[in-house]
Design brief:
Mean pLDDT: 90
Number of strands: 5
CATH architecture: 3-Layer(aba) Sandwich
CATH topology: Cytidine Deaminase, domain 2
Distance between the termini: 28 Å
CATH class: Alpha Beta
Largest sheet: 5 strands, mixed
Strand content: 15-25%
Length: 146
């Protein structure tokens, strides 16, 4: 079960993974994008990593979280219920839709996204029960503190 997976992952591993996300975020910023980087972890291994690409691809849907979900989907398929998404920013509502659709059970992020964050904004899509039943249980979200 995923509960065992996330509970078995030591805090230093989350910090290590967040450092990778921060490196991706710096790369994104150097290309004129928002400074966001994301990973998808499965069984304590990195399945996919991505950086924000909205400006470089001229596509508003190319948030780091969307990009990493697209990459991971090619590897592990639609059901990502055993995966953990780690990101430098709290996923927005658009990204939260994709996270719930793919049943990602856990999201770990560093910085909150004001107003449009998926777990702390006006539309808490990550944690809401008001979604299609086939999307499964609400996502459990953790904010890493510095």
């Amino acid at each position: 079960m995923i509960h065992q997976t996330i509970n078995e992952l030591p805090m230093q591993d989350f910090n290590k993974y967040m450092e990778i996300c921060e490196t991706l975020a710096r790369s994104a910023a150097s290309k004129g994008n928002s400074a966001v980087g994301s990973l998808i972890i499965l069984k304590n291994e990195i399945v996919a990593k991505a950086e924000e690409a909205v400006s470089t691809k001229q596509d508003v849907s190319c948030h780091a979280e969307m990009e990493v979900i697209r990459k991971a989907g090619k590897i592990i398929g639609k059901d990502m219920s055993q995966a953990i998404l780690i990101s430098t920013k709290e996923p927005c509502v658009m990204c939260s839709y994709a996270i719930r659709y793919h049943k990602i059970g856990y999201v770990v992020y560093k910085e909150r996204t004001e107003k449009l964050g998926g777990s702390n904004g006006y539309f808490n899509l990550l944690t809401s029960d008001m979604v299609p039943q086939e999307w499964g249980s609400p996502t459990i979200c953790f904010q890493l503190k510095p």
